[in-house]
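Suppose you are handed a protein chain with no further information: no name, no annotation, nothing but its sequence. What can you learn? This example shows the usual starting point.
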Amino acid sequence: MLEARRRSLTLVLCCLAQFMVILDVSIVNVALPSIRAELGFSAADLQWVVNAYTLTFAGFLLLGGRAADLIGRRFVFIAGMAVFGMASLVGGFAQDDTMLVGARAAQGLGGAIVAPASLSILTTTFTEGSERNRALGLWAAMGGAGGAAGALLGGVLTQWLSWRWILFINVPIGLGAALVAMRVLAAGRGKRPAGHFDLAGAITVTAGLVVLTYAIVGSEQHGWGSVRTLGLLAVGAALLAGFALVEARLAAEPLVPLRIFGSRQLTGANLVVFLMGSAAFAMWYFVSLYLQQVLRFSPIEAGLSFLPMTLTIVACSQIASRLTGRIGAGRVLTVGMSSIGAGMLLFAQVRVEGTYIVDVLAPSLLTAMGLGFSFVPVTIAATSGVAGAEAGLASGLVNTSRQVGGSLGLALLATFATHRSADLAGTLDPVGALTEGFQRAFVLGGILALLGAAAAAGLLARQPAAQPV
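A reasonable first move is to predict its three-dimensional structure. Written in structure tokens, the prediction is:
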């Protein structure tokens, strides 16, 4: 009984951590106008409230996953939750834009430590098959719900209290979870000694991902053909090439043993989750802006508009965990990604004189169904059959792929939307031009999601089903 209770509490802790980490990717979207007004952000610099988090999150995820294997999953989880909570406290008291951006970057570091550690803890606590599928289904549902609930909670807190409470709310949760984890979580790490840590690999892959994402984000302001953008892209590519060289030839204990990509299932799952992140992160961002800037919703109205989406993701995630055990992750994932693509293309029909029911609710429910049917199977596919000593690595890879996809996808779609709106500025009123830009972004997001569906069908749909749930 005591062991069953400990495992239940472990599941609750890991789900709470995943919910909080993913929540903070999107919770700031609704609060951005209030943050800009109080701290004096310029229009160009406001994006860094989001991107400071996503850049450090994406760049340090692999390091966090490997640290869980080599140092110990419980220690890494507790340290990550503590960093996340303290960074949230600093951000809540931010007095200028630099202080807030720095705190958001530190939050991203804490999230990058926590996310792979929590998934690794689950994959080593629950045995592979129906038991693990149930646990991963709940964990994945919390990640999906966190992304959708961010806008809801951000709107409520911003309008009723202050934008600062979107950060303060993490403090008791993060520090409280760290204290509970000291008593509940079992210590554990892989068989490799902690001294064999691939520092060169960690530095090159983190720097490469950060520089590459930074280049894409900056292209919105500086243009794709600028010396700055091309130079940063070249530097990022060179760093990633250096990482591959270190892992293949130089590292005694590589951060990412390249042999792991010999798994068709793991490689395919990471490709699909990259494309899913590219579409989903941008969708939350642009829908939040459409609701406030075009339909003129208040922050709390915009936040509440996401409630049906949140509930749908949670419900469909539970259905997906059962279906994955019966028919296999690839088939469920193909349906899910197709639904996301269809929802994004339906979002592309948004109008200046639109309504919530027609222009937002209908496509959001279709997209939410797709997200619910995608988060669970892609997580299961990416971590099934991985050795216990490399559970943190597989967890870090799937989280990295989703986060990098989200960062790059948001930057790319925002760039195309901005360019479209600028091109039409002389022929349409500002709101009309803005809406046309949103339409362009949704079309491109739909294409990315449908590419993910094709990848799931081609690379994962023939994989055998897991044990029935």
